[in-house]
Amino acid sequence: MNPDKVSPDQLRAKDLIKQAITLEPDKTLYDVRNILIRYNISRVVISKDNKPLGIITEKDVARFLYREVPNRRLSEITSNEIMSKDLKIVEEQTSLSVCARMMLESNISSIIVVDNAGDLKGIFTKSDLVGVYAVHYPRKLKVEQYMTKKVVTVAPDENLHMILLLMVDSQISRVIVARDQKPVGIITGHDLLPVSILFGTGAAGMYWTSQEELLTADEHKDLYQLG
User: Fold this and answer.
1) β-strand partners of 56
2) Which of 16, 4, 2, 5 has its CA nearest to residue 96?
3) pLDDT tens digits along 79-129
4) Pairwise CA distance, residues 224 & 208, whole Å
5) At a CB cut-off of 8 Å and minimum separation 6, what does 127 contact?
6) Rounded to whole angstroms, what are the CA distances from 158 to 67, 166, 180, 183, 218?
7) What is the distance, to the nearest Å, from the Cα of residue 98 to the centroid of all Cα atoms in its chain?
8) Non-local CB neighbours of 208 within 8 Å, separated by 6+ positions
9) pTM for this entry
10) Which domains are delineated in the chain?
11) How far apart are CA 130 and CA 108, in angstroms?
12) 5: which strand partners?
């Protein structure tokens, strides 16, 4: 079924899912980091024998790096330790409206899709939902009706440690970089992945870094290529 040529009421999860990028639970946080960067994605499904076991998002990585005691490298931490195991799962015939409602009520950005046998078939994300809206509901609503007005901002010379703290404490995945109250850029959880290998980890409320100088938002763009 072509999602662009049918009513949204007729769409099912199987019509919208994308192939899920997966790793097995014995893979490390370093492997997760590399996969997220390589495929430019924000989540990895942890599975074994084609059965979904958990999911790791950019937020999970950031949260773990900030809160964990700095005694292990990324390559020494298994996916099983940090993956979210409370998966929201639907079958292929689940309607679009049910998927959207589940995401809203659970405050999540992705749903795992399985077949009748419980085998992983793919993943449905908020980006897929936005795509459906763009095709079927153009020009019906304005940005100002749904935008978040209380925006978290940082200065261009803010260090990345503080940006990470803001993301974790505010439970957000991006902050706006502003100068003189004018937006000049944005930093997302994905942007922090390439430089995550430079950092140690630390308990909440404590500074942590493996460098003598803390990275700033301006300097981060030069280090992105390290990933």
Assistant:
1) 44
2) 16
3) 998 999 999 999 999 999 899 999 999 989 999 999 999 999 999 998 888
4) 19
5) none
6) 20, 11, 14, 14, 8
7) 22
8) 66, 70, 161, 199, 200, 201, 202
9) 0.74
10) 3-136 (3.10.580.10), 144-226 (3.10.580.10)
11) 14
12) none
